[in-house]
Design brief:
about 60% strand; globular; 2 domains
Length: about 220
C-alpha cells in the first residue's frame, strides 16, 4: 500500500512538473496575431524620420496587411501568417523625395520571404535566401534574423514590454539594411530603427537626402 501511494505521489509530482515546464515555455512563445492585431480599431501614430506617420493592420482575404504612411511615404506589407512562421508575400514602397520627384517600387519574391519563424523564442535565429522581383529586375536576397528577450521600451505613448527582433537584409545589387524592431503584445510595432548601408530605394534615400538611419517611435494610440 505504501509503495502504491508513493507511486501515485511520484506521478502527481511528475505531472505537476510537466505543467510548470509547459507553462514556462508558453510565457516565452510569441504568437504572431498578438503582434499583428487586425481589425482592432486602433491606429498607431509615430514620430518618424519622415515626420508624423500612421500604421494599422487589417485582414484582406487570407492575408494580413500592414500599412504605414505619412505625407511623403507609404509602406505596405502583405503578410501570410502560418503555423511555422510569418511570411512576406509582397512589399510596396513609395517615397516623395523632392517636390516633383517620387520613387516607388513593388517587390515580390520567388517564394514567401520569412519575416520570422514560429514559435518565436528568445535567441531564435533564422535565415532565408531567395530572389526578389521589382521593375522587371531580379536580385538574389539573403535575410538573417534573431529574436531577443523582451525588454521595456519607453516612448511618448507610454512604457511597453516588447520583444526585440533584428533582421539583416542583403541583396546582390549591393543593398543592405539592418532593421531592428520592437513589438508589443496586442498592439504591434512600437519602435523601429533602420540602418541603410546602401543600394536600392533605401540607398537612394541615404545618398540623396542623407538618411543613414531611419527611425520610428510610437507617439500616440488612436482608437476608433
Amino acid at each position: 500500500m505504501k509503495n502504491k501511494s508513493f507511486y501515485i505521489i511520484c506521478v502527481i509530482v511528475m505531472f505537476a512538473a510537466i505543467i510548470i515546464v509547459s507553462s514556462e515555455k508558453k510565457k516565452n512563445i510569441f504568437v504572431p496575431s498578438i503582434y499583428f492585431p487586425v481589425n482592432n480599431g486602433v491606429t498607431l501614430i509615430y514620430k518618424s524620420s519622415f515626420g508624423e506617420s500612421s500604421s494599422k493592420c487589417f485582414q484582406e482575404g487570407d492575408f494580413t496587411i500592414s500599412l504605414s504612411k505619412g505625407d511623403d511615404f507609404q509602406y505596405k506589407q502583405t503578410l501570410m501568417i502560418k503555423d511555422d512562421g510569418v511570411y512576406s508575400i509582397e512589399t510596396y514602397q513609395y517615397f516623395k523625395i523632392f517636390l516633383f520627384f517620387t520613387k516607388e517600387a513593388t517587390v515580390t519574391y520567388n517564394k514567401p520571404l520569412l519575416r520570422f519563424p514560429l514559435p518565436l523564442l528568445p535567441s531564435t535565429e533564422w535565415e532565408w535566401e531567395g530572389k526578389e522581383y521589382s521593375n522587371d529586375e531580379s536580385n538574389k536576397v539573403k535575410v538573417s534574423g534573431k529574436a531577443f528577450f523582451k525588454e521595456f521600451v519607453i516612448t511618448k505613448a507610454g512604457k511597453f514590454e516588447a520583444i526585440k527582433i533584428e533582421t539583416i537584409v542583403e541583396s546582390a545589387s549591393g543593398a543592405k539594411n539592418i532593421v531592428t524592431e520592437w513589438y508589443s503584445e496586442d498592439l504591434g510595432l512600437i519602435k523601429a530603427k533602420i540602418i541603410i548601408d546602401g543600394g536600392g530605394i533605401m540607398g537612394l534615400l541615404r545618398d540623396v537626402l542623407g538618411y543613414r538611419t531611419i527611425e520610428f517611435e510610437l507617439n500616440e494610440i488612436r482608437r476608433e
